[in-house]
Amino acid sequence: MTESASPAASGLALACPIDSLGLLEFDGADVRTFLQGQLSSDVEALAPGSGQWSSYNSAKGRVLANFWLWRADEGERHYALAAGDLAAAMQKRLAMFVLRAKVSIANRTPEVAMLGIVGPGARRALEAAFGRAPAAGHVAQYAALPATVVALPDGRFVAFAAATNAPALREALAPHTASGVGSDWDRHSVAAGVPWITAATSDQFVAQMINWDAIGGVSFSKGCYPGQEIVARTRYLGRLKERLFAFHVETLPPPAGARLWSPAFPDQPCGTVVAAAAATGGGADLLAVVQLAAVGAPGLALGAAGGAPLALQPLPYPVPESTAPPRARP
Fold this sequence. Notes:
seven-stranded antiparallel sheet, 18% helix, disordered N terminus, 2 domains, Gyrase A, domain 2, globular, six-stranded mixed sheet, Elongation Factor Tu (Ef-tu), domain 3, 7 helices, alpha+beta
């Protein structure tokens, strides 16, 4: 991704207000069994205080929402970070399938304030502010505030507290961070290659199309969940024709849902923007699900045929080959 001098690039962490994410809370004696049967990841494998990427899919295998899901240190309570504009809809939809299970689902988004802590100095800043920082993929509770910090696997942190405690959270971090804005969080999310599915892109992509298999958001060894047959078929029959790629474009950041065009597909768009953010050196960096045949062809553009040209950028993780594995001989 394009970079230039910034507080985060120079080693100082940024504390960025986040208003794009929502928080769901799951509790009850049957919560793990319930989530195991609804989400794409292996919820039963979660140890207390640890998390995983996950998704909730339609029966046709399309991602309705994706999450960072974690299990609390004690008890059966689980939490999920999701796109804020989908949190209420996901709470309502999942609640329809609770039936007689001992599970409660609450949308805590209106009750909390969130800060993203990003940049090479993010861990040092949290250690200076709170005495410790959670390991990657884990969560830490700070009873003195109180506040919670989630460590995403890619080096980003999400700190949140009750809205009434937000000033105390900001005050604790202020001596050790520079003030960021929401677009800083967006930029680091795009750089991580991890898209949040929003209302604009919900129910459009199979999990592998957003590289959810590449970052551990899909278990291929667990039992059934909505869309599981489609997700498995995509893996084992090698029918994946689209993948998530990173690009740079010399325009303002396009909205999620904006279309990509290529001479290889002259009569229809060949891709969809999932996330975008202003690049520090100008222009925008973005993540888009694109037809594989278009990525290798010249002329890929944003918005229209012959529009702003897109420059392919590397992703920070390896992506599985989109071909079927060799079949075993009988």
